[in-house]
Design brief:
Layout: H1 7-12, H2 14-39, H3 43-60, E1 67-70, H4 75-85, H5 88-107, H6 119-141, H7 162-169, H8 175-191, H9 194-197, H10 200-204, H11 207-225, H12 245-251, H13 263-290, H14 299-316, E2 321-324, H15 325-333, H16 340-354, H17 357-360, H18 365-379, H19 382-390, H20 393-408, H21 411-432, E3 435-440, E4 447-452, E5 455-456, H22 461-469, E6 476-480, E7 486-487, H23 489-501, E8 508-512
Parallel strand pairs: 4-6, 5-7, 6-8
Antiparallel strand pairs: 1-2, 3-4
Helix pairs in contact: 2-3, 2-4, 2-15, 2-16, 3-14, 3-16, 4-13, 5-13, 5-14, 6-7, 6-13, 6-18, 6-20, 6-21, 8-11, 8-18, 13-14, 13-15, 15-18, 19-20, 20-21, 22-23
Length: about 525
């Protein structure tokens, strides 16, 4: 289905998109701050990128449901980039150049790469993200994790890993945070029940908003009546307090254009452009699979939109952005219908910096962890595993390998491992089905008919060559390409070579409807 929506669709869907945008904002805010912190960038940098992703990229993108902003997968690249270029301002220039490169990739139609990721690998990525969200949020849910909110890699900055962090969390529970987390999760589960959805008020108000307001209220009661349960400041949202536009301007950092002669600048820019583009293409492919309306995102347009977003973010002092699967999944789970939900989340992010810092800094992270636990569950429901298993081992094995690889490494490395396994099964399938083989017994000699299939690519060459090599001596072989629309040059060459030498084994070869290939004699 084509990805088209008219202006009237956008306005008609506002009843769904405004609450969804609010939920995405609540999830995005601590992620933007946490990723800034982990990247060694100013705290405001992640918010700037989130605002640009919401207000600019959502409008330029052809995707209706993906949300753009700072990505956990880029934290190491940002950290190393700032260190390599020795100043944050020089790094901002690299972000701007990376954006220019992404726009160029869009015009060169490099977005087609996204279509080559097998469905089993994309579904494995979604399930892995769901599991990681659940595993990573458990310590925050218990008030026991000091790593940044949104950290996704197996090996953590504090030296622990995903599983050892959970074990540690059970020895360092903050009871107040845990109580708030449990109540928040209970509210979210209640909000999903069919009887609640039949009440109009509850359909309009997202459960996540009730959770946020309720968590602040509960923590206020703790502070006043049971201080030992009050959630520690390290487990609250930590938004910079900006009281005027002048203060905001003072916080903005600008790119250092005098670094254009620095060769390292271009290496960092190229790295950002390639990794951010890959992560974006993976994310939009995954979000398209989650979309109930199965709308397809134009990949080249997405690369251009991301490029423009990175140019603007870099000019304003923001870190690089991609389309991000966690926020996009939250958007789908919250009932977002069009790109307006991503735009609205951008408005909320901007307003939060200017007017809402005081209130939002009282929100416990355990409440937001409960929201992400629900998103994680929806991404990795048991029905997804059952569905993949029913499709057979060719789909199930790459799916499981992708999940395990992402869990124990990171998103991009895991995807590449899953892709390698997926390609193996694709090659195996191609190996089996490039032709129809029929054997007939005659008095004088055996007759073998090989009818080539509709499309015979270079992937089929190994199968055809091995089949020709195993043909019995002194047989009559008929190779027929009447059904073929396309036969790869390598395959034609292999058939020609076989025909040229078959007489040495007493094989009589007839070739019909297959273009002859002129092969240079190198001897």
């Amino acid at each position: 289905m084509k990805n088209t929506s008219s202006k009237s669709d956008y306005f008609a869907s506002l009843g769904k998109d405004i609450p969804a945008g609010l939920v995405v904002f609540l999830v995005a805010l601590p992620l933007c701050l946490g990723i800034s912190l982990a990247s060694g960038a100013p705290l405001l940098a992640g918010i700037i990128t989130g605002v640009v992703g919401g207000l600019v990229v959502s409008l330029l993108s052809g995707s209706q449901l993906s949300v753009s902003g700072p990505a956990a997968g880029l934290t190491v690249i940002v950290l190393n980039g700032i260190e390599t270029l020795q100043s944050y301002e020089a790094f901002l220039l690299a972000v701007v150049l990376a954006g220019v490169l992404q726009v160029a990739l869009g015009f060169l139609k490099a977005g087609v790469i996204g279509l080559y990721f097998p469905s089993s690998v994309i579904k494995g990525m979604l399930a892995a993200i769901g599991l990681i969200l659940i595993l990573k949020q458990i310590p925050h849910f218990m008030g026991a994790d000091d790593d940044f909110f949104g950290e996704m890699n197996f090996l953590q900055p504090d030296g622990r890993n995903t599983f050892s962090e959970i074990l540690h969390a059970f020895t360092a529970i903050q009871l107040g945070a845990l109580i708030i987390g449990i109540i928040s999760l209970a509210i979210l589960i209640l909000w999903e029940q069919p009887f609640m959805k039949r009440i109009k008020l509850f359909k309009l108000v997202p459960g996540a908003l009730i959770v946020v307001i309720g968590s602040v209220g509960i923590n206020y009661l703790f502070l006043n009546y049971s201080p030992e349960l009050a959630v520690a400041g390290t487990h609250l949202v930590n938004l910079p307090n900006i009281s005027s536009m002048g203060e905001l301007q003072n916080e903005l950092r600008l790119p250092a254009f005098d670094q254009l002669t620095n060769p390292s600048l271009y290496v960092v820019a190229f790295t950002i452009a390639i990794i951010a583009s890959l992560e974006t293409l993976l994310s939009v492919e995954a979000v398209d699979k989650l979309d109930p309306h199965k709308r397809r995102t134009p990949n080249n347009r997405e690369l251009k939109a991301q490029g423009v977003g990175n140019i603007i973010a870099g000019m304003l002092g923001g870190i690089p952005m991609t389309a991000v699967i966690v926020r996009s999944s939250a958007n789908v789970a919250a009932g977002g219908k069009t790109k307006m939900s991503a735009f609205i989340h951008g408005i909320f992010l901007l307003l939060s910096v200017l007017f809402l810092a005081g209130f939002l800094n009282q929100v416990p992270l355990s409440a937001l962890a409960a929201v992400l636990l629900m998103v994680g569950y929806k991404l990795t429901k048991p029905t997804l595993f059952k569905g993949q298993l029913k499709l057979g081992h060719e789909q199930f094995i790459p799916f499981v390998v992708t999940i395990v690889a992402i869990l124990f490494t990171d998103l991009l490395v895991g995807i590449l491992i899953g892709l390698a396994v997926g390609v193996f099964f694709i090659l195996k399938a191609n190996y089996k089905s490039p032709y129809f083989f029929h054997k007939e017994e005659h008095r004088d000699k055996e007759t073998i008919r090989i009818k080539l299939s509709e499309h015979v690519s270079f992937l089929n060459k190994a199968s055809i060559v091995l089949t020709l090599e195993k043909l019995p001596d002194n047989s009559h072989v008929i190779i027929d390409g009447a059904n073929s629309e396309y036969i790869d040059y390598d395959v034609l060459e292999a058939i020609h070579e076989f025909k040229k030498t078959a007489h040495e084994r007493g094989i009589f070869v007839e070739v019909f409807n297959v273009e002859e290939v002129q092969v240079l004699d190198m001897h």
